[in-house]
């Protein structure tokens, strides 16, 4: 007998079927015909073999009839982590991909983001981006908002309402020569960051936290970078920014910060490189800079769609991993045009193969490794892997229920395929039609239950 969304006092859900996830040791581990229980706190209570059903039902207080059985071609995988996405830029995602970074920011980004002074615009766009990313299987997102504190707080509220796990950053920038009204003074930026942090923490959202967000070295004075480093340190907060995305940018940073030995050193000198820092891109980092990332525990967000779309560069992920630097995947909406981490998975594999075409000794990434980067790797990059990222007893149940053969979907199953083939097909060919349900901390958030009033 099948029943969905079991609710008992003790257990929120008990599932029986295939579970696919990553561990530190194994990029793809497949648990076939397993039982997994999710307790009332949304955490994985047990993972066991079906023979243990009777004993488990007694211990955890559920009846065998309450078990939800996955159908053929279905499996659970961990929710995907988008380690770098600009929520306001979703308004023009899929357009404006015709110029390099610095011109792109001045021509498209700053004018678009300046409109988020309006809470009506913010509400409309932020609701759409949260819904779209959740439908695409992003259970955790690390968002840039804009310089506007109240609109940034609204983004945090919307992610909380829809049940997405998120880090949300009010963008800080006290330099902008192209659009004079889209910047703050250093004092405004500092005060508004403190207001943003305290108001967001006061909401006590269980899954949504603030992240200190200097836009990047070219948009901030050294004084502001130093203030933000201190704020993050004093409040033990996450930090996000951009680094070494494009060669013109790298050159300008070198000119503006002559006292620093490298772009990475600019952030390091301002206390912005910690084990809770995630930096987007890093296409042009030197090996010495990667060493500094490893020493500080800072991580990289690899955004291959954006790197290609803006002709920024090709990050050698293999080299980053060889340096033991943590790395997750990002969409970088709207420099990247797709709001799906599945697209980031494919573009990561493409870039790795292009590097191998250019340099045959490059050790190409496997789809299993990139699956790990999209899930556990992203959690590690955001330093939240102690409570999410894979199926381990005691961790939150952040999961996608995937049907590789969903009717009307993009995948044809020709033969009766094993679970690893179903995973590979889903990663390469799948989309939101294959994602039947999305769970965050044990709560089913897709199909949507939250209604905007
Ligand atoms: Zn970005």
UniProtKB/TrEMBL annotation:
- What's the top EC group for this one? hydrolase
**EC no.?**
3.5.4.3
Q: Which UniProt keywords apply?
A: Hydrolase, Metal-binding, Phosphoprotein, Zinc
Biological process (GO) annotations held by this record are: guanine catabolic process
Catalytic activity, reaction form: guanine + H2O + H(+) = xanthine + NH4(+)
**Which molecular function term from Gene Ontology is one that the record holds?**
zinc ion binding
**Organism superkingdom:** Eukaryota
Please report the name of this protein according to its UniProt entry. Guanine deaminase
Taxonomic source organism? Cynoglossus semilaevis
